[in-house]
Amino acid sequence: MDTTALINYLHGDEAIAEYLEYNEPLPLFVPTVALHEVFASAGRLRGRDGVEEARDDLDWVKPLELSADGAAEAALVRAELQESENKIGSMDTSERSKIVRLSDCLSSLCPNPLDEEL
């Protein structure tokens, strides 16, 4: 999930809640960059309490470090999608079908930590 999807989840977005419910048995990995952006936004809006509340509300996510290679690949995917007019923008994550598409794209960019445990 990206920053916008996490923030929308914290604000009660039903489409994201449905997506999470549908995929509940699977762990949900979130890049640490996105977590930082969410916590920083919560801090700007509500100070220390906001950061603590956001962290508590997102304690179920699995932080995933985004490497330089992963960040570059994400930029290439975004560029390819933009060229084909299948843009991924900050507002795209509010619709369930686009969340799934974004999730599929991101899952191909980052190694699955569960694979390493096998």
Automatic annotation (TrEMBL):
Keywords: Plasmid. InterPro entries: PIN-like_dom_sf. This is Twitching motility protein PilT. The lineage of its organism: Archaea, Methanobacteriati, Methanobacteriota, Stenosarchaea group, Halobacteria.
